[in-house]
């Protein structure tokens, strides 16, 4: 499609799958990473097409984000699509954490999962024009709660509201903003929960009796970012294998 795409957290998991999907569709992709330069370089090497690059920033660092988005926009000649995918998911059970640990978990999680994407978006829209697309990666946990990671659930619920606000703010400029709320997907983030008998428990939440592959989530992100999906602006796509039907 020959668009300029920035995907955060694209060195692995859903972000890497999204980078592959956009590149396969003919787009140029900036593969954002935080610490894993080697993995990002590997994703870059494997992408079809040309004009792709890697860009680095810790999403908890607003100055690094500004420089990263500027690097991506300069190399790609603007930004047509932003995928706010990077995120963290660290357990912090209310009965099992100290008060200090609890505060740290909230600060870290909100910094990367909420304030980070909001800062990336602020910077990216300055390089985006009519026809632009923003896809935010939320989670099923936004709607069901996350008993062991309450800050994660709250951050993903806030991403839904952020999506709606930005859809209203940017709609008159012809920029559509959507979110996807995946269920269990086979990535490093879900590895602990999908290990051992956890896998069977989680796959049976879905009537399909399986969890998602990152490529499936990536295909849905590609659709939400497409020109044809403009009228879906403000939408949060449930992508959890129909798991609500078994609850
Ligand atoms: P993952 O852990 O494989 O990938 C997360 C990415 O975020 C990595 O590339 C990581 O480097 C990046 N990241 C983490 N901290 C960062 C920081 N401080 N600065 C910059 N980048 C940082 O997990 P994933 O499953 O591919 O997660 C992608 C998105 O999907 C996340 O937003 C996650 O919350 C969401 N999600 C995942 C699942 C699932 O079951 N895997 C379900 C629902 C939602």
TrEMBL record:
Sorted UniProt keywords: Oxidoreductase
Keyword Oxidoreductase in annotation: yes
Domain Ketoreductase: 3-189
Pfam family of the protein (one): adh_short_C2
SUPFAM superfamilies in the cross-refs: NAD(P)-binding Rossmann-fold domains
InterPro entries, A to Z: KR_dom (IPR057326), NAD(P)-bd_dom_sf (IPR036291), Sc_DH/Rdtase_CS (IPR020904), SDR_fam (IPR002347)
Record family assignment: Belongs to the short-chain dehydrogenases/reductases (SDR) family.
Protein's name in the database: NAD(P)-dependent dehydrogenase (Short-subunit alcohol dehydrogenase family)
Organism: Kribbella pratensis
Lineage of the organism: Bacteria, Bacillati, Actinomycetota, Actinomycetes, Propionibacteriales
